[in-house]
Amino acid sequence: MSDSKLAGQFFDAAIGLLERVRDEESGAIAAAGAAIADTVSAGGRLFAFGAGHSSLAAQDVVYRAGGLALMNLLAVPGTVGVDVMPATLGSALERVDGLASAVLDSSPARAGDLLVIISLSGRNALPVEMAQNARALGLTVVGVTSVAYTKGTRSRHASGGFLRDHCDIVLDSKIAIGDAELRTEGVDAPFAPASTVVTSALMQAMMAAAAEELAARGTEPPLLRSGNVDGGHEWNGRVMREYGDRIFYRH
């Protein structure tokens, strides 16, 4: 069987986007890493939020080997993934006014904490209000989004604003409107989305920048090890005990 030309084209497209965000977003990545380090050093807590497939990149930095133990998932029931039935309900919930406020009010998030909000389009009510309300509560807000949507679509929030308009730091994923990298003859719809690959890479680059910044300040980054390597469970137990009051996925 010959190699797939389209599979190769997808890898090329994804690699090209990764190179762009590496080169063009380096300043924003460093700023986000420094903000995370500031929060950790000051005793604050870290949260990540994303709805739908944007939640995948948020989940990717929570409770994982090589990740910061202090990163917690800020979950909105029904929007975390395709486990909700019907799946279309998750998309509908992203447009509900007031939902973000209710979630934040019932969460442990407080002034001095940091929240990363991931939304590809950044146009729906949920991520926009999440950013607005989090900043009003005194949180630092980092947005990971595609700026292209602010130029080629209209906001679905009453303010007319996008996620990027309500963040302290914005990382642009460079994903084109529609999130599909490939087209081919005989297939009417574009396909092969790359947003998860690129957004997850941005999140991990941000975590790497935070670890680098903490180490430069003489602080041991509170990282988790794999439980599948010798000593991993013991290491993680020590980190959990030391930072237990800032880790919410254990309770």
Automatic annotation (TrEMBL):
Location of the SIS domain: 36-221
CDD domains: SIS_RpiR
Coiled coil regions, renumbered to chain: none
A Pfam cross-reference name: SIS_2
Top-rank taxon, per record: Bacteria
Listed name of the protein: SIS domain-containing protein
Record-annotated membrane-spanning stretches: none
